[in-house]
Specification:
Strand order of the largest sheet: 1-2-4-6-8-11
Largest sheet: 6 strands, mixed
CATH architecture of the largest domain: Alpha-Beta Complex
CATH class of the largest domain: Alpha Beta
Shape: globular
Helix content: 40-55%
Oligomer: single chain
Distance between the termini: 32 Å
Order of helices and strands: EEEHEEHHEEHEEHHEHEHHHH
Radius of gyration: 19 Å
Number of strands: 11
């Protein structure tokens, strides 16, 4: 177990817990290192079929402003390198090939909200607090939130949240379609793990292909999306799992998937 993140696997679902809830799990440079390493290990481990990330009482309060000040004092190059490193956490989370579910209690501010937005699905507590706080402190969105938020809610709502820096509850975030599931705080992690288990039960090669196709299609035209789908589906149809599913259906038996 690391100092900032723990990771446990049960029945194919990895649960990545941020372990500084009393400090509201700041998005520090050390946290980024552990986040990237944990996701890389989960990606390489065939026993992990889906991942839930959660922070306990608080998801993440966002950037570690105290730690960042020390880097900022070193000058422009150090600041650039710092922002690039911060962004590597978002790249690792958004680029994770397996299903990734965020379970959000407490605060998800700034880069913490961005990290949640990197997940495939966000499950939030009704009383959680989301905030694109950047404009409140004289900054602009980073960690991918300028793009991620617009993908979920559209340009108008994204501008509203970014330009006001307004805090919204988990319930309001669900109404605005920032998040996909909204439950009582006591059920957040349970619901997220159940969703991850549901996804993990599917053939993994197909699930990873679905995720790549969905992400690619979101960034292209309809005709380009058809091409993306065609390339991926052509591979899957000649693999093991789809033909096995068809045979099992015809033979009225449970399929024997091999994730290939």
């Amino acid at each position: 177990m690391s100092e900032l993140i723990s990771f446990d696997v049960e029945n194919g679902v990895g649960v990545m817990r941020f372990t500084q809830p009393k400090r509201r799990n700041p998005y520090s440079l050390d946290f980024v290192d552990e986040l990237v390493a944990t996701l890389a290990a989960a990606q390489a481990d065939d026993a992990v079929r889906a991942v839930v990330m959660t922070g306990g009482d608080h998801f993440s309060s966002g950037g570690d402003l105290v730690g960042f000040q020390a880097e900022m004092a070193k000058g422009a190059r150090a600041i650039y390198n710092m922002v690039e490193k911060v962004h590597s956490g978002a790249r690792a989370a958004y680029g994770f090939n397996k299903p990734l579910i965020a379970a959000v209690n407490g605060v998800a501010y700034g880069a913490g909200m961005s990290l949640a937005l990197c997940a495939d699905v966000i499950v939030t507590a009704e009383d959680a607090r989301f905030c694109e706080v950047f404009s409140k402190v004289g900054g602009c969105p980073d960690t991918g939130s300028s793009w991620l938020l617009q993908q979920r809610v559209g340009a108008g709502v994204a501008r509203l949240l970014v330009l006001t820096g307004r805090e919204i509850s988990g319930k309001k975030a669900h109404e605005m379609r920032v998040v996909e599931e909204c439950v009582p705080a006591s059920e957040t992690e349970i619901t997220a793990i159940a969703l991850a288990a549901e996804m993990a039960a599917n053939p993994m090669f197909g699930i990873e292909s679905c995720k790549r196709v969905m992400r690619a299609a979101a960034e292209c035209s309809f005709e380009e999306a058809l091409d993306v789908e065609c390339r991926a589906q052509s591979v899957l149809l000649s693999a093991h799992d789809f033909p096995e599913a068809m045979s099992a259906f015809s033979e009225k038996r449970k399929p024997n998937f091999k994730d290939c």
